[in-house]
Design brief:
11 strands; alpha/beta; 325 residues; Spore Coat Polysaccharide Biosynthesis Protein SpsA, Chain A; 2 domains; 12 helices
């Protein structure tokens, strides 16, 4: 049974050239800690090769250990360093451009949200994008995850609270899973019989300076080691880890598309005319249920899955060092 009366948390913050946001991230952690009656904590900052003042800012933070990735770099590799070096019962993962809501931890632990089966949680995530014309952040959405209160999640981003022992038991982060790494972690945790919940309270504000477009997303799918490659890598990793059932559940739009496309190919062997009619009707139903965007993504992911078999696998060197303050 989890003892929430003895709170101990390792805050794992990752960053690359986040000097504009990092101090605010650390301050939000400090303010959240100050609202807890009794807590043991540490802050672990993992830098992915910043060329700005990010590491210097981290050096000024009390109870902060600093690590640097020295070979290949990825968000998953950085979080893996935090996972391996965290010493307390819970780990709260944050990106350097995120602000933790000051009352989130107080609400979670005072309400005893976490239990033997509920081993982690997220909350409402406000996503801000930077308007370079106005030189300010603008609110893009106040509920990025769109989950109902106390619901099991099908998606987690780079910020979540989790029991350290369960994370390690599940295999934790895979350094070479450069994209979709959080989804693999979620599937592996669920395969052990645990859940991560979404709570209807403010959690983080993400001040995202990076912008993406449909064109950039398409380019990422077309790259040899882009979004499509790592989506396929995620699928096969979850299969190897025995968590494919939960990957199918969490990625239901894609696997629904995959199943019906397989049925289309099967019908094509007998009656091409009927197969085309089936494909047309299915596409309409799919768009109504999941939307045009999901249909486009599913097509690209299916093509990427086929391509994955013929692509040499990306080699990843996972190394880090401790940075003395």
């Amino acid at each position: 049974m989890m003892d929430n009366s003895r709170i101990s948390i390792s805050f794992v913050v990752i960053g690359l050239n986040e000097e504009a946001s990092l101090d605010g991230c650390f301050q939000s952690i400090t303010k959240a800690i100050s609202k807890l009656d009794s807590v043991e904590y540490e802050i672990i900052y993992i830098d992915s090769g910043s060329s700005d003042r990010s590491v210097d800012i981290a050096r000024e933070v009390r109870n902060c250990k600093i690590f640097k990735l020295t070979k290949n770099r990825s968000a998953s590799a950085a979080r893996k360093v935090g996972e391996l070096n965290a010493k307390y019962n819970y780990i709260l993962f944050l990106d350097g451009d995120m602000l933790l809501d000051v009352s989130f931890l107080e609400n979670i632990f005072s309400e005893n949200i976490l239990s033997d089966s509920i081993v982690g949680c997220i909350g409402l995530r406000q996503e801000n994008t930077f308007n370079y014309f106005r030189n300010e952040f603008e609110i893009k959405t106040k509920d990025f995850y769109k989950n109902k209160n106390m619901s099991n999640v099908k998606h987690i981003g780079g910020a979540f609270l989790v029991c350290r022992d369960v994370l390690i038991k599940s295999g934790g982060f895979q350094p070479d899973q450069i994209m979709w790494e959080e989804q693999l972690v979620l599937s592996n945790i669920m395969s052990l019989g645990y859940n991560i919940k979404c709570i209807n309270i403010p959690f983080i504000i993400h001040n995202n300076r990076k912008t993406t477009s449909y064109a950039s997303n398409l380019r990422s799918y077309c790259k040899r080691y882009g979004t499509g490659y790592y989506f396929s890598h995620y699928i096969f990793n979850s299969y190897k880890n025995g968590s494919i059932k939960y990957t199918i559940l969490n990625q239901s739009p894609f696997f629904c598309f995959l199943g019906f496309f397989s049925l289309f190919l099967f019908i094509s062997f007998f009656k091409v005319k009927y197969a085309l009619l089936f494909l047309f009707i299915f596409s309409l139903i799919y768009i109504i249920v999941f939307g045009k965007k999901n249909l486009a993504h599913s097509v690209l992911r299916l093509l990427s899955l086929v391509r994955y078999f013929f692509t040499s696998k990306n080699k990843f060197e996972f190394c880090w060092k401790y940075e003395n303050k």
